[in-house]
Amino acid sequence: MSKNQTTNPSHDPVNHPSHYTQNKFESIDEMMIAFGPEAVYHFCICNAWKYKNRAPFKGNFEEDMKKADWYLTKAKEIKGGNLWQE
Question: Splitting the chain (86 residues) into consecutive groups of 10 residues, what average pLDDT does each group show?
């Protein structure tokens, strides 16, 4: 268990990883601003594939599959016009 998981019960490694929430905006939101929805959509699809492809070999299969699902959900939100996660 990582230090964040033991000292921060609200740590959510799938939906809001602590290393993505160190700034005012989460990384995915900054990417939307910097690169636009089309680029972030493709990033999400590729990242989902990466997590699913590597999940059997990394040691935390369930968490990686949940992360892949998160990226697919975000891609679907972007395609549907809902660009910001509430």
Answer: 45 70 82 96 97 95 95 93 58
Q: Which domain holds residue 64?
A: 24-79
Q: Give me the helices (H) in 1-86, please.
A: 3-7, 27-35, 37-58, 61-79
Domain assignment present for 65: yes
CB 31 within 8 A of CB 46: no
| Distance between CA atoms of residues 46 and 72, nearest Å | 9
Cα–Cα distance, 56 to 1 (Å, whole number): 19
Q: Does the residue 6 lie in any domain?
A: no
